[in-house]
Amino acid sequence: MSLDLSDVTLTYPDGDTRLKALDRVSLTVPDGSVTAVVGPSGSGKSSLLAVAATLITPDSGTVTVDGTRTTGMSRRETAALRRQRIGIVFQQPSLLPSLTAAEQLQVMAGIDGRSPARARSRALTLLDAVGLAGQAHRRPHQLSGGQRQRVNIARALMNEPTVLLVDEPTSALDHTRGAAVLDLLTRLTHQQGTATLLVTHDRAYLTAVDRVVEVHDGRLGAPAADTAR
């Protein structure tokens, strides 16, 4: 299993007490599958994603990424883990305005020390996989919102992560583009074998994912109706 959270509790300071953002959460995301976490604003979805991404250390419990238990790791070690094994699709693409679609991806490979030639080849392969083979030379202002989100997804896959974490990928898209992005994420997950965890408040696009679970007040409830591939 590429991503496993076991008995995770996370609290934040709240005056003289502490607010419980996650309450003994356990969740496993198998390789090659998409698990969607749904729930209202403030339910703990973002905290769950941040813990899975090793951006926040929980009060207790364990997070295991691709067989590596992150408990006790230093900041440098978790940064290396994220760079090498975790891809993150942020809610807003935040693409660099001066770079082409291909260059957005190549920057990620450069950070990881890959050769420019290999980086260029993989970038073009991924852009083809997300349906943007003919847009590699275009800059963000020349792309639609849906196309920018596709570049965002391809960029997250650039360093061949084993875990893919996705934050509200359809929030800025209309229904048709949102559905297309979720279908794309599911297809790429199955093809690339990543363990994909996405959080969303919108259930309208989730027919393609492999599993849906609900979070309320920091606790995972019984899975909602699982969906077949």
TrEMBL record:
SMART domains, per the entry: AAA
Domain of life: Bacteria
This protein's GO CC annotations: plasma membrane
GO MF annotation list: ATP binding; ATP hydrolysis activity; transmembrane transporter activity
Alphabetical UniProt keywords: ATP-binding, Nucleotide-binding, Transport
InterPro entries given in the database record: AAA+_ATPase, ABC_transporter-like_ATP-bd, ABC_transporter-like_CS, ABC_transpr_LolD-like, MacB-like_ATP-bd, P-loop_NTPase
PANTHER family, per the entry: ABC TRANSPORTER RELATED, IMPORT ATP-BINDING PROTEIN
UniProt name for this protein: ABC transporter ATP-binding protein
The species this protein was found in: Streptomyces albus
